[in-house]
Specification:
The structure is a single chain. By secondary structure, the protein is of the alpha+beta class. Helices cover 41% and strands 20% of the residues. The protein is built from three helices and three strands. Helix 1 packs across helix 2.
Length: 104
């Protein structure tokens, strides 16, 4: 009688495709009390925007009620929202900053 040896397992190489992390828009919302200069300061300080770009976004917030400050992965967006909101509260402004899932 011959002893059969178990067959060795065959390993197959599989390609696993990981999708990139979801991105989120960080959005400032308009209010009637936060000074425009403060909004420009926030955009420059927390989003590293030049004065002209910050002014453009501030005017969009003012005229359209909202403006996208940047697009980031979830954790970065959440941190920016918290830091902007905290900074606005410290300076006694009702500026609201939110994050929304990016549709693209």
């Amino acid at each position: 009688m011959t002893a059969k040896t178990p067959a060795e397992p065959v390993l197959e190489k599989r390609r696993v495709r990981t999708k990139p992390p979801s991105l989120f828009n960080v959005v400032l919302l308009n209010d009637d009390f936060t000074p425009m200069e403060f909004v420009v300061q926030v955009l420059q300080q927390f989003f590293a925007l030049e004065h002209e770009a910050a002014t453009r976004i501030m005017l969009k917030v003012h005229t359209e009620g909202r403006g996208v400050c940047g697009i980031f992965p979830r954790d970065v967006a959440a941190t920016k929202v918290e830091r902007v909101s905290s900074f606005a509260r410290q300076h006694q402004h009702p500026l609201q900053c939110v994050m929304e899932e990016n549709g693209t």
